[in-house]
Amino acid sequence: MTLENNLNEAILNITMKIRKEYPELSKYLNEMEVTIPYVDTPEMTKKLMLDYYNTLDSMLKKYDATHKAATN
Q1: How many other CB atoms are there within 10 angstroms of residue 32's CB atom?
Q2: Number of domains comprising the chain
Q3: Counting C-beta atoms within 10 Å of the first and last residue's C-beta, which end of the chain has fewer, N or C?
Q4: What is the C-alpha R_g of the chain?
Q5: Which residue ranges in the chain fall short of pLDDT 70?
């Protein structure tokens, strides 16, 4: 499996997790800067995909840590 395929799968999995387990975060998925490039014909590079995944992962971890702290 190629790096690109792995990134696609990882992005899909974390997006599905957010939509299923943290639906309140779903509204931020479409608002993320990484998904709104500043060019007319954007090219999805491996770096952009990795940046997008890392942004999703970071958002989820921060929210999860804050949410767990608030419920304890």
Answers
A1: 12
A2: 1
A3: C
A4: 14
A5: 33-42, 69-72
